[in-house]
Amino acid sequence: MNPATAHVPLVDDELEVLSSLVPLSEQRIIELGCGAAQLARSLLTRWPGCVVTALEVDQRQHAKNLAQPQERLTFLAAGAQAIPESDARFDLALMLKSLHHVPRPLMATALGEVARVLRPGGNLYVSEPVYDGPFNALVRLFNDEGTVRAAAQLALDAALRTGGWEPVAEQRFEMPVHFRHFEDFEHRMMRPTFADHAIDDAKLAAVRRAFEPHCTSDGARFVRPMHVRLLRRCG
Fold first, then answer.
1. Where are the domains of the chain?
2. Is the model more confident about 25 or about 4?
3. Where in the chain does DSSP place strands (E)?
4. Helix axes 38-46, 14-21, angle to 10 degrees
5. Is the pTM value of this prediction over 0.85?
6. Top-level CATH class of 14-130+145-176+224-233?
């Protein structure tokens, strides 16, 4: 089958993709750029033998995470480019829509840090949004991530060329995204706590005009195309 025409599955829970690619029993896991750590919390519920260390640079989100503690889940305020953990400590590293948020000059450093804290044979799961589709076209009106997303993929390619990693698997899928109304979209996408998209009245009105044709009585539904790359730390 031609990969370009192969069916891309719709996946509501990315934990399904992760668990199909890597073992999740008795794993020491680090997540870089955890956000609200929704996947980590769900993972620990389903695989109680795992432990997760979750890093986040957004201080407001980090404070929210600390206010919602969970057994076997540790939160640290730190970025992927300077991981405050010892060498070879983890079995699995997760970067869920976070590699492209690492400053471009520091992406190689971040991947080097991930290699340092993974044991030989440990896995790095990188999930990045694809720069394509109606949802991306809407978001790029106020936050065009084309350059940084491409840089994230190039950083992974460069890391593979160092010989410190080997490619294991790639997978593409789509995730459903639902907004109740435009104000829901504005709050979640246009005014996140970790970034200032310089939203003025004119930009807000332009995005609203582009958003409204997608609205129904059930709100607005989109799909976000995703690309997963799984790398293994060489011994």
1. 14-130+145-176+224-233
2. 25
3. 28-32, 51-56, 73-77, 90-96, 118-129, 165-179, 215-216, 219-233
4. 60
5. yes
6. alpha beta
